[in-house]
Fold these 2 entries.
Entry 1:
Amino acid sequence: MDSHPNIYQPFPVFIARTLPQISEHRLFQLKLEDGGTWERFGHQPGQFIEVSIFGKGEAPISISSPPTRPDVLEICVRRAGRLTGSLFELGKGSRLHVRGPYGRGFPVDKLKGRKLLLVAGGLGLAPLRSLLLYVLDRREEFKDLILMYGTNNPDNVLFKYELLSFFDRNDITYFYSVDRDQEGIWKQYVGVVTGLFDQAQLSPDDTCAVLCGPPVMYRFVLEKLLKLGFAKENIYMSLERMMKCGVGKCGHCAIGEKYCCMDGPVFNYTEIEHIKEAI
Ligand SMILES: Cc1cc2nc3c(=O)[nH]c(=O)nc-3n(C[C@H](O)[C@H](O)[C@H](O)COP(=O)(O)OP(=O)(O)OC[C@H]3O[C@@H](n4cnc5c(N)ncnc54)[C@H](O)[C@@H]3O)c2cc1C
Ligand code: FES
């Protein structure tokens, strides 16, 4: 990769490590072929890349690691179809191509000096993790940090060891939920993620909320936040839409007058509340 990457041009990277996550989900650590760090890639938390494998196609994938950890670029992938299926067949040392970084990430500068409430559902933790780790790496630049993460059952908790490691920290408050716990092994909250709001001490006046998850989660979490008195300007969310080009050319990702790939994927709630198909 050149020192100033051409974001339109795919460049080769190799898989330094793969880490199994839950069923059909895997974390890939990517390294640059020239041995350099990802610092010159210049990505922001919340941005995504287009990953391609020759002859297999291309797909947008969120960057899961923060720019504060530039040795590897991490992506957390769910096996969905052609490209991701082929990616799962590759191992350590295999070559693939990426282009990017794309899209508007989380507004890190606006979040600095604020209290943060991060709410993730399911695979939504993958993009949100880039912000979460960024905040933890620059902890003194942010005020209180609350994480809420919900998934459907205890087998589907992503980044389990990382989430467990927060038990030893006193600079993050965390609440984890599962929708169902048939085996009775879950020690935390059982129920949908919005149930966690009743456990947290939130101060809506000076807290920014950042959401990342499935559309159904947004509907209920937004309702909760607005009821609690959060200002719409203090709510951000990452929207995932079918994307192809990733650079505003094909129109696949349009919602109303916005292109998710260029105007998003992260939006302030005030920018999309009037767009019916946004949530
Ligand atoms: C900005 C952005 C970030 C993303 N980040 C991640 C990530 O971090 N990890 C990850 O695993 N996936 C992520 N995805 C989703 C991923 O790009 C799709 O699953 C993609 O289709 C996989 O390509 P494929 O060739 O393996 O599957 P395909 O052969 O293209 O299709 C797989 C199936 O998924 C459907 N599909 C395609 N795109 C989407 C979508 N956006 N939402 C729901 N269904 C879809 C298709 O209709 C098809 O049925 C992201 C998508 C976007 C737009
Ligand atoms: S993905 Fe092509 S315009 Fe957004």
Entry 2:
Amino acid sequence: MHEMSIAQSILDIVKEEMAKHQVEKLAAINIAVGALSAVVPSSLTFCYNVLVDKTEFAETRLNVRVVPLTYSCYACGHDFTSEEMTFECPACGEADPMLTAGRDLTIENIEVAETEKE
Ligand SMILES: [Zn+2]
């Protein structure tokens, strides 16, 4: 189950960001997972919940947004999304459109929890 190591690396990156910005508590971590990235969102949130149990992240939600496969056609410039791998532009029929999104896992942003100021 590689989701466990992915969840761990997300936490590592987030912790670095928090240290950099002197943030102590997060409300949520928002990530985007490409449909082609081979990450199962439910499995990732499960692993995350296991990892953060009884830590400072126990109340921090992990929100996973699935990014569909997005293509751009070289020939006619048509941008389109697809549920699966495609090798033909639906507008002009040109072969081999360029995959522009849907392959990566990215941390979109982190939401800082409101803390009481003294
Ligand atoms: Zn085209």
